[in-house]
Amino acid sequence: MTPSDDHIIGHGAAEAAIQRLVDEYGGQLFNLAHRFCGSREEAEDLVQEVFLQAFRSWGEFRGEADPRTWLFRIAARSCQRMHRRRSGEPEQIGSLDALLPFGDPLIAVIADDQPDAVQEQIHAEALRQLESEIAQLPDEFRVPLLLKDIVGFSVKEVADVLGLEEGTVRSRVHRARLKLRSAVDRALPRAEGPAPPPAYEERTCLDLLNAKQEALDRGAPFDTSVICQRCRSVFASLDLTHRACRELAGDAMPDEIRQRLLGRLGQPS
Predict the structure, then answer these.
(1) What's the pTM?
(2) Taking a C-beta distance cutoff of 8 angstroms, is the pair 133, 261 a contact?
(3) For position 6, what pLDDT does the model report?
(4) Which CATH number fits domain 96-247: 3.30.230.80, 1.10.10.10, 3.40.50.300, 1.10.150.20?
(5) CB–CB of 104/195 below 8 Å?
(6) Terminus-to-terminus CA distance in the chain, angstroms?
């Protein structure tokens, strides 16, 4: 076998491997890019950049690593480079005190307690508010939130992708969720009359909120039988936010984008 034959075989193996990654993860990656960039055109550019980088780097990929984590690590670095080309983005998410909902004079109704037609209207408005608010998140909060709640990585996997401590990822995802929850909450009608006073001390409410967020991290149910009406409203809007995020996850890359990408992979470097 000549060196040129070896190069052709290596090139073909890399192309076939990246095509499999496109088929398996292209939809997730395009969706991440779309939510990050805010436009279909920029998302397509970002996705092509990620897969072309993966193609060029395939010889350096160590097979014992998770290819999904490796691929999204490339995507995270590409997002960071894109951030440096963008301006006018917010630098802060707001203080934690400003994100906490316990001082609201009126609480939102529980969407799931409403008639089906009202639920559908609430859900549509919640999605609209959510998409707008995601675009306003600073990147250091937006990317972990996208990876965790939309792409569906675990906290540990997000930490591996971004090179962060798990506690840092958890903190940023939780704060981003509270920011999104406040936007979704604005789409909900208010319950009649003033909100009842908290049933517990503020520290207890904060501990319950943290436990609720950790349950969302694990995809585990949370017992609401011991919480007050105010916390129940807050946790219900968190659930609505989390469900809406999952609905934003795309299952497949648009076919025309996939064909253009595969066409570029087949071109000689």
Answers:
(1) 0.85
(2) no
(3) 37
(4) 1.10.10.10
(5) yes
(6) 21
